[in-house]
Prior knowledge:
- The complex is a heterodimer.
- By secondary structure, chain A is of the alpha/beta class.
- Chain A has helices at 30-43, 79-89, 101-107, 109-118, 163-170, 183-195, 218-221, 233-241, 270-276; strands spanning 51-55, 70-73, 94-100, 122-128, 131-132, 138-139, 174-179, 199-205, 223-224, 247-253.
- Helices cover 30% and strands 18% of the residues of chain A.
- Mean pLDDT of chain A is 92; it is low at 2-7.
- Chain B has helices spanning 8-35, 39-63, 97-121, 125-150.
- The model of chain B has no long low-confidence stretch (mean pLDDT 92).
Amino acid sequence: MNKAEPLVSRYSHEDYKSTVKPIWCPGCGHFGVETSLFRALAYLELPPEQVAIISGIGCSSRIPAYTQCYGFHGVHGRAPAVATGLKLARPELTVIVTSGDGDAFSIGGNHFIHACRRNVDMTLLVMDNEVYGMTKGQPSPTSPADWDSKIAPGGTGFSPFASLAVALASGANFIARGFSGDPNGVARLLVEAIQHPGFSFVQVLSPCVTYRPEERFWKKTVHPSSVESTNDPAVAGHRLLSDDGFTTGVFYVGNRPCYSATVDTSNHDLRAIEEDLAL
Amino acid sequence: MNQTISTLDAFLAHAHELEREAVERYEDLAGQMEVHNKPELAELFRKMAAIEQQHVDKVEGLAGGEPRTLAPWDYQWQDPESPESIPVGQGHYRMNPYQALSLVLACEERAEAFFANVAENADDPAVRESALQFAAEEREHAELLKVWLARYPEPKAEWWQDLDDPVSQE
C-alpha cells in the first residue's frame, strides 16, 4: 500500500485471466470479485506463476479455471487444507483460497476454524451469497433465519453463521469484509490481506442474482466502516458481534507470528521421496 | 463529487482507465451472452468493446504511449466503478437488445457527465480543453445510441420473468 508514486504496472489484470469464459449467471457478484482479485494481483505486481489459487466446490470455487495463475480445484470444503500444505512446501508462492459460504463455513467449517488457528500465511477469500447457488438454491450457513425458500418454508430458523467473529475467535490475523459491487474497494482489501503476514480472511458479500434476486439491493445496504481497524481482539470482537453484517472495511489486523514449516525439506527431494515410497 | 484533476497527465490516466475498463466490461458481457446463447447481444457488446478500444488507442496516442496507472482505488470516480462500465450486477440472462442498449446509453451519459465535471473544475486549460472534447464525443455516442434504441420496442415491465424459471431443488 505504500507505493510512493503511481507507476506503470508490470502487469495488468488481463495477465491473470485465462481464456475460459466464466459460466456464472450474468449479473453474478462473483464477476466483480474476480475483477478485484486480478486488480489486486496486478497492483502487487505478482507474476502469475508465483500465485496459486486453491478452491473447493461451488460457484465461487470455479475461479482457478478462470485464471492464468496456478490453480487447484479441490475437494469440497478442504481447500484450506490443500493450501496449507502448498504454502508450507512452497513458501515463496502467494497462496489464495477462494471459497463460498457453503464450502467454507458448512462443508469446510472445521477446516476454516483450524486454518484460522494455524495462522499459515495465506488469504481466504469467501464469496458469500447466503445460498447454495450451484445446487439450486438451498439455504446456506449464512442465510437469514427467516429466508423463505421451497426447501425451508418460512426459513430455517437458524441464526446465520457469524464468520468474521468465528475467524477472530479462532485466530485469524487479518479480518475484513467487502462488497462485490465495489471492485476497487475489494481490490484494496485483498492487497492488504495478501500483504499482511499470517492467515487473512476476507468475506465479500456477492449477490446471487438467480436464487437470491433481492440481494441486488445490497448495494443500497452496505456501508463503509466508520472506524479504523484495530489490533485489539476484544475491540474487534465487540464490533463484529454488534455489527449488522453489512459494514465493509478492515475489522482486525493482528500481530500473531505465522506458522511456517519447521521440518527441513532440503534433503527430501522428489527422488528421496520416491525411494522412500519404493516407486 | 467534483473531480479535481489538475494535470493533463492525471487526466489522461483517468481517461485511459475509464475507456480500458469499458472495453473489459463489454468483453466480459459479450462472453456472458455467448455462454447464455444470446449471440445478438454478444455481437452488440463486442461492437461496443471495439468502439471503446478506439478511445483507448486515442488516449494512448495523446499520451505518447500507455499512460501511468494509479492504484485502482485512487481513481476519482463518482461511483464505486468507473463511469463508462456497466456496473457489476446489472447483467441478466433474460436481457434483450433494448435493455442492453439502455445500459450502454447510461454508460455514455455517465462518461459525458464525468468529463464535463472535470472540465468544469479544471484550472489547467489543457485539461479543460481535452475534457470538453471527450465529453462532446461521449455526447455524440449517446445521441447515436438513442437512435439505435428507438429501433427496438420497449419491453414489457416484467421482461425478466422466465416461464421456465430456474427451480430451487426441493
